[in-house]
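ok so for the tutorial part 2 we go from a plain amino acid sequence to predicted structure tokens. step 1 is just haveing the sequence, like this:
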Amino acid sequence: MKKKLLLILSLFVSALVFAQNVDVEMKFSDKRVEKKTYQLKDVGNNTYRLFIPLCEIPTNVDKLTIIPEFARAKVGDEGYFVLPNGVLTKFKERKDGRFLASRAHLAVLGSKTPAGTYAAIVKGMPYSFSSGNFKKGNDYHQEIYFNFKHRKAYDDIFIDYVKLEGDDANYSGMGKAYRDYKLASGAVKTIREKVKTRPALEYCVTAPEIRIRQGWKPAPPKVRHQTLANEPEMKVVVTFDRVGDIVAELKKQGVDKAQLCLVGWNIRGHDGRYPQMFPVEPALGGEAKLRSLIKNTLADGYQIVCHTNSTDAYEIADSWDEEYIIKNPDGSLAKNETPWSGGEMYQVCWRRAYERFGIHDLKKVADLGFKGMHYIDVVSCVYPRDCFDPRHPTNPNEASWYMNKIFDYCNDTFGGSMSEGGYDHCFSSVDSILYVSFILGNDKNRNMLDRLVPLWQIAYHGIVLSNPGPYTVNYKIKEKDAQLKFIEFGGRPNFYFHSKFREGASNWMGENDITCQTDEKLKADVALIKEAYDEHNKIAHLQYEFMDFHDEIAPNVFITRYSDGTEIITNYTTEPFLYKNCQIEGKSYRVFKPSLLSWFTNLF
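step 2 — the prediction. this is what the tokens look like for a chain of 604 residues:
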């Protein structure tokens, strides 16, 4: 008995020591490596702080890696690592490997090991760190690292490790710790708070998003360097008159609320000539037809907005100028690896996007009459982009600030804002996103990925409206598992007419599609939207609630619990599952309303 007590005490002391130290490795440009152990500072509230001031980070450091002692484990240990993108890695036997989350979705990751459960919140240079889960031999570890080879440190390294205990010693606790930090800092506000002054956002809580791709040039492009002389023809698919038919069918079938977003309304269609947007594409009906469509759609009780772009540029634009393009460290122009419909796609400096185009061009868009949550593409599905042009040098913190200014203008002018992905550098302003994670639905055969967990949703549900992934866009025409994932991860319905448009290449939102090429197809696909609308409105109130707990309660059976006490059980198996004396059939879900006790507790 005495030996057992001594062992327990030894383990406790060992865990306490580990909880106070991190190993830091610096790799220098001359190939030298220096290692140092830092003692974390106990700042109270179960929080241990690593602080390395900017003045102590040598300018010739290429990479700085941080590994806490408590973020190490052995094969066979209980627990897991969770990356900012929701990738969960257990400590099981497998081949050696790693899973990297480069330039993270969230500035939080976590570890649950025999030494304790911690949420690591990166508060210094939160848009410049990467992280990874690693296995080598019998050892696992999780690390945070900063790559300073091209972008030197521009702020202090500042990480808070929050120790999680009791019911919070899990990935739900990690997400909640980050949410609490973001709310307490004033960086974000809840949907419940925002709708007090933002009726367009309140409308969208219960209204599905319906995106309509109207026209586009070939993608991948047939011509990479486009001019007015060699520009490929644009494919006309949904004219402004045909959008009017979609609105009429929505009204006829009883979809009382919806926000329509026009994609490719601009000159030469989707990704046609950015940053040029005007004139309104004549082949779709021109400006007069568009203004009429907007007026009539708003009169029918729907919101209508459009898709614009603040980050990409094509040589064919009438405003093309290398001056506003991001410069790489060597002075070359930054561009995407993949060309799009307009040809080679160059990256616009986010500072210059605000200074040269942002508000100036959006005023012209607003003048057309659009009202609702305006959509700006790309911004939230990439990290804030560095620019090394000496005329407008911009670090990621500054880039984020400029883009938030553009979204703030959208909120004030259109009524709200929306972007593409789940990177959280713009959530001080952005209200809704098209999808959170590209991993979802594409997570098979990844050695270090055991499960994708809703870390993002636990942090941001109730703050930002979202859809889980491209996998769940048009979820009503997808396989049953996608439909269940949409419910499990708390999605807002996002539908996309003609989501599929790439030729001879994969379409990331799926090969199944909703279209309006015939009246029969239009009627059938609007019926699916109506089905989703009715289903969503039974649980739409949960968009105001936080996602407080998520777990796998049986093999392929999951629980999602909200802050009002509502529980949703999703059963991915083919067999019935019993929960609280109620049966959830295979490949289905069930909503359990909060008990009177939980309702009364939340009230006070």
